[in-house]
Design goal:
Length: 163
Amino acid sequence: MNIHFKPIQESDFTKIKKIYDYYILTSTATFHTEPITIQELKESIYINHPIYLSFGIFREDEFIGFTYLCPYKKRQAYNRSAEITLYFQPEVTGKGIGKTVIQFMDREAKKIGLKNLLAVICAENMGSIQLFKKNDYVECAHFKNVGEKFERILDVVIYQKEL
């Protein structure tokens, strides 16, 4: 399977929104509970930022997902760290693409001088937890009962990789 990455462009946001809306409405992969606007997406996913990189994920010429880095916290002392996020079209999950994406993002983050990547995950999302564990991320935080979605109280875990 030929997976490659291209920096996210303005024209990608409609495809990104379609994928993200699916997860908003069907899962706890995100804690948004209602679809968000493209403008709201642009506030999280930066284009052409020197540190907070964003990429479309392609299989051949098909846009199958997106991945990006964003600030863990918006205070200068955290600038050595970033949060990593990735989402795929539902039909391509579980096919080994996540490993390729995480390894790519780890390399890119290291190249630009980041020291830590953090994955913030709903504790019931075992697929994501296993994916990050297999890529040498370790649990560094567990927040109990901090979210509520689909009438369920949810925990959040953070997995960290020191680059």
